[in-house]
């Protein structure tokens, strides 16, 4: 009776991509290094006062988990969420997303820490070692929101499009109770925002050769409840003009040159098709796993009957 459960579990813990496995090894090895050699934190984690000579920690800090809980959560999240996102984006784009979001998150944290020091004159902002994969993990949730927003979590009946917002709200609430959790809050905040910036304006779509996702369903205000969106939209429009004002103007010019026809991918329906493809890919993957589990269970029952 235990064999079918084991076989079913094996199917769940299979299918991880080589890239995700490699990054998981990096996270585990990085954690082991800072545990065996505590002084390595000085060189690998983000310490704002030391970032100028040790600029590489803007990159390395994102792959160093200082706690055992952090490395477990990050490794599991990377393997399972990566198994969903990487086949849809492609390995190259998936790795690029991780690298860019990790680097930009570290840059934002560095700037914020320096600003807080000059405001408060507290040296803790300069010398606290900050690190962790939480920025990229938050970015993965934004990617899920973009691809399969209307899918629901089993049992909880919560649509996946609300995962980033719920994570942010939970992180802010918990930060009021524990100082250790508060140190991760900037990483989660900036990771969420930088990943949205990347997916909204910079990610190049293979099918259209264009950048970003201009659909209304992926607007910044979509992270907030409906009643707050009239307040959020005017503020978000400022950053929209800063980030893609010129590209909007060039797209409009090209539209006129094409006789008013919209460019491929500029229509929100294209974003909907992408989400449908993501949903189909997820459903096919789940169906394949269920079929494999059922076959394994059937084979195990047959073997048990023969042994009897």
UniProtKB/TrEMBL annotation:
The keyword Transmembrane helix applies. It comes from the Eukaryota. It comes from Senna tora. PANTHER family: PLACENTAL PROTEIN 6, RHOMBOID-LIKE PROTEIN 19. It holds the Pfam family DUF1751. It is a multi-pass membrane protein. One of its GO terms (cellular component) is membrane. One of its GO terms (biological process) is retrograde vesicle-mediated transport, Golgi to endoplasmic reticulum. This is Rhomboid-like protein 19. Gene3D superfamilies: Rhomboid-like. The chain crosses the membrane at residues 23-47, 67-85, 97-119, 125-148, 184-202. Residues 270-279 have a biased composition (Basic and acidic residues). It is found in: Membrane. Keywords: Membrane, Transmembrane, Transmembrane helix. Residues 253-279, 289-308 are annotated as: Disordered.
